[in-house]
Amino acid sequence: MSWFSQSSNSSKDVPNFYPVTSYLSGFGELSSADTAWANTSNKGFQTETQIWYTVLEDGTWVMVQLIWSYVGIFLVPATTQMTFKVYNPNTKQSTWRSINASGAKFDKQNLKTDQFEIRHTGSPKTEESYHITANLDKGVTLDLTFTRPANAPGFKFGQGAQGGISTFGKDRDESKRDGFVVHRFHPLAQSSGTIKIDEKPLDARGEGMFVHAIQGMRPNLVASRWNFAFFTTSPGAEDPKLGSVRAVQMEFETTDDYGPKGAKSGRTKVNIGAVYSTKASENSVLTVTGQTHSPASSPDAYPASLTGSISSATHKQAIKDKETGYAVPSSIEFQWSAPKEGSGSEKSIVTAKVTQDVAGAIVGEGGLIEKVDVLAEIPYVIRKGLAAVTGTKPYIYQYHNPATFNVEVDGETTAVKGYLFNEASFVSE
């Protein structure tokens, strides 16, 4: 399907969206292929990202993002981009760099370009690490390693080849679907190494995570909204009962093109999450959550969950941002609830909640790091094409704050101190 085409699924009363959270459940083991670069260039518009996040001892937040994009036009080559950002909540200072790479050579999880290199070692069943080296310009160099311990396996939502995959189109078959979206996670990793900014070294020892995502369709047709949350205890501040704790959550809301009864049948939310603890579980996985939020007009259109799971990101007291025109939350509440992984009983439930009490639209207030103008950060050819064809102007609101993560395990509630990084993304009205 060309990236210039519109959705062809206009038949009424026929589903043209299939949320993974209504058809699969729970922890899905990752294969090596799951985190290898797909670089699909024969199925229309593709956006593939790999992102590493970490929080350092003083609360400093770091992100390294790789984006591979193909617009689905034979004569237009794919682009590879690295975006790097670091933010110190104590000084309110941030550093941002974004470069379009040349000479990109992909090999499974590895990537080498003229400007940076990613070297992967290990496997899903052993310890894994990603070594990132980059010269982004004269002022910023990276030498970072993200390591996932062997006893903290990554996950996708649901087992098997279809784990994690939500599909668009009347036919779910890979050869006939309009597109798909998938996320695979390493929620628990440690970072190490050095970041140099203007020759000043920054020790990158921290508590991190990794996510590999693919949007196999034009982005403005995949989702109208996104929510993302990453909670972690800080280095050297493990919780006495739970140890090092992670919680991740990814949610997207469909556009009007796709729904339970075809186009204009209501927007559906798909929310996937997980809670990890190094002390409360043998393999660190406390629970994996997933929930389908059917349109308000058809609340029973999809099964919400196969296990009674709750996985939600709730925006509260929306206010209009005059700069972007979007209704942004004054606060956000994230919830997780699902059977404890490995317990063998649906009665053994893990529940958790973390709230960003103050959000809003003013940079520097409520932990708002930046309002990211997405079209300004992606390669020129994709930016011009998307703006011309769709008329959308997506923004990502990035927040980073100290937070308390309340989690109940085996009937005992623990208030875990740490940091919450979260994003509220608006693609279209």
Automatic annotation (TrEMBL):
Species of provenance: Kwoniella dejecticola CBS 10117
Key words, A-Z: Cytoplasm
InterPro entries for the chain: Ceramide-binding_SVF1, Svf1-like_C, Svf1-like_N
Domain (Svf1-like N-terminal) ranges: 47-215
Family: Belongs to the SVF1 family.
Gene Ontology biological-process entries: response to oxidative stress
Example of a GO cellular component annotation carried by this entry: cytoplasm
Stored Pfam families: Svf1, Svf1_C
Cell compartment(s), UniProt: Cytoplasm
Ranges for domain Svf1-like C-terminal: 217-428
Record's protein name: Survival factor 1
